[in-house]
Amino acid sequence: MILRGLMHLIFSWNTVVNNRTITIGGNSTHEHFHPVDDFSSMVESRQGPETCNTYNMLKLSKHLFLYKNDLKYIDYYEQALYNHILSTQHPEHGGLVYFTSMRPRHYRVYSNPEKTFWCCVGSGIENHEKYGELIYAHDNDDVFVNLFIPSELNWKEKGLKLVQKTDFPDIEKTTLRLQLDQPDEFVVGIRCPAWTKPGEMKVTVNGNSVSGEAVPGQYFPVNRKWEDGDIIEVQLPMHTYGKYLPDESPYLSLMHGPFVLGAATDSTHLEGLIADDSRMGHIAHGQLYPLDQAPMLKIDGESWEEEVIPVEDEPMTFKAPGLIVPDSEDDLVLKPFFRIHDARYIVYWRTGSSDEIDSIRSAMSERDSVLLALEKRTIDEVATGEQQPESEHNFRGEATESGVHMDRHWRHASQWFAYDLKDPEKEAQVLRVTYFGGDSDRHFDILINDQKIEEVNLDGFQGDGFVDVDYQIPESIIQEATDGVLTVKFSAHDGSLTGGIYHVRLMRK
Q1: Which of 43, 96, 458, 462 is deepest in the core (most CB within 10 A)?
Q2: DSSP assignment letter at 509
Q3: Could you give the number of structural domains in the chain?
């Protein structure tokens, strides 16, 4: 039974990391996985990977590494630690991040220590003790170096101290000094990261080269009789490369070694940058900038990485004037994402060849204009069947259940269910409800603040897709609503179900 459980955990880890995870190490948008073949919501949404998900993946990676001693778990751990976890705490005021938006030119919100305590604040505080968690490992005799972080290992039983000094990643090396009670023979295994090229990692002991093959994903073993004061130096050459979204859509993230390179684009309209205690204050509610107007990467050949040029005398800082278009944006600075704060940014870039750029922008403009127009009209909304949105909208009901159909969440009931939506300015006029067109023999009422606004009979004749239906809201309901709260209730007729409700949206004219 225990072995079966471990196999399930290993399968789950492989599925999440290989099929669901983006370059920062996160894996979700608005707290849910994507369809494996459609990551469009990753680049369209103001929400993005939540810190709690990555927190849990780090815990799972640690346990699986200790069980299997497979360095793929450390490779992921390093990726997520540097690019997601480290990026989610503000370096000055200490605020923590819930959602890290991946929408080009959007931003992320930080907690206020005096007002906000989300789940990603609780786990977020714990996240930052993980930097020392897996730097080293050992068996009965030997010691292993997994991560390149300034630190000190004190293995009292063996009489060994291992002191690691490094300015990695700004300098591509690390130094380890052994302090021993007495000379001893054992192995110091040094992780050869997956992001290095075969044979590139070099190791010296007391200035002398150590022979051996540096194989990415394996330990480089240094076996000798060690003496007090011995020094190991490890060269860790990094290269620039790119990774597309897991669905292979043409959005590329730039990497240098294990580090995601982001670009701060500007610091305009950062509404709610430090969150208040309002419902959904953890979401970056500021203006969404059009995707078609975001800088893109022009990729015309296989050696495009050569266009990413280091900035002289500024470690881990790059420019790419030959790649970034339009020309007005080609001076954007690329640096590790964890060093970007209080700004709008780009992590995933839309790519295309020189011949494609104009047509790509036109197609993006057409799609994005519809989404932005809908965003502008929306006052409040509920992603039905999803835990957090429902909780935030005071979900309650009787004889109700939820599920997923065609990669979309739904809720229905044989009795009723309801949500509270807010219309603080009393400007709502339309309730938009999303159904599946094939639902039939569903008879129910829609009520707002206990007043019926529509009797609905779904006949299944709307096709094999999703259908948005708009219902006019009587002005009297809007004006009489206390504090602008509109309780939207779906109540089934006797012997029937409500429709499967896939989304509820409160809208302006």
Answers
A1: 96
A2: -
A3: 3
